[in-house]
UniProtKB/TrEMBL annotation:
This is Transcription antitermination protein NusB. Pfam families: NusB. The gene is nusB. It comes from the Bacteria. The keyword Lipid metabolism does not apply. Signal peptide: none annotated. It comes from Ephemeroptericola cinctiostellae.
Length: 149
């Protein structure tokens, strides 16, 4: 497994790009998955990302969006529509990873989400994301979270 601690690893760049693509997808009314994906692929730094991971994550999140939203909803304090598009996108990416990428430790998923939210979100958005993901991780990765306690 690639080391995840480097703040600008290829995986971090992939996650950032997926969040940016989801931001566009959410803001435009989820009308065009391919337009959001194409926009991101034309980003000048796309070559620095892990393209395989990006493709897997973007497609996975969009394909599973309803189930991911259902997983997140019990842990948020407002309707999804009221979340900022950045927080919404970050939560979707992290929920996808918690649910599907079991080789990535849950603490890494949460840390990456927090760092991306710090970079792209509102001032205290990272605190909200952290709180939601702590609860979601406890729900989706019960044994891993219990073992870490």
């Amino acid at each position: 497994m690639a080391k995840e601690t480097n703040s600008k690893s290829a995986r971090r760049r992939s996650r950032e790009l997926v969040v940016q693509g989801l931001y566009q997808w959410i803001v435009t009314g989820e009308a065009s998955r391919s337009a959001a994906d194409l926009f991101i692929r034309e980003t000048p730094d796309f070559h620095k990302a892990d393209e395989t991971y990006y493709k897997q994550m973007f497609s996975g999140v969009v394909d599973q969006v309803d189930g991911l939203r259902e997983a997140i909803t019990p842990f948020i304090d407002r309707p999804l529509i009221e979340l900022s598009p950045v927080e919404h996108g970050v939560l979707l990416v992290a929920a996808y990873e918690l649910k599907n990428e079991l080789s990535v430790p849950y603490k890494v998923v949460i840390n990456e989400a927090v760092e991306i939210t710090k970079s792209f979100g509102g001032t205290d958005g990272f605190k909200y994301v952290n709180g939601v993901l702590d609860k979601l991780a406890g729900s989706l990765r019960t044994e891993e979270v219990a073992a870490a306690s």
